[in-house]
Amino acid sequence: xxxxxxxxxxxxxxxxxxxxxxxxxxxxxxxxxxxxxxxxxxxxxxxxxxxxxxxxxxxxxxxxxxxxxxxxxxxxxxxxxxx
Length: 83
Known about the structure:
Number of domains: 1
Mean pLDDT: 87
Structural class: alpha+beta
Largest sheet: 2 strands, antiparallel
Number of helices: 6
Oligomer: single chain
Radius of gyration: 16 Å
Number of strands: 2
């Protein structure tokens, strides 16, 4: 059985709760590109620990209030046939 790590985040919601902050505004405040913010927000890229802390600091939150770490189990064909 193979497992993968999933990191989710609430960045989009937080941006809108903070006077509809744009991805570019967040990027400028944390020192990355807008494309990086977009990829992190979409879950296509996990930020470095430093960037995660910078994002949390912008919103006045702890890292674990912005990001959630969960381990999900991927079913193999053998496991998915079991019921």
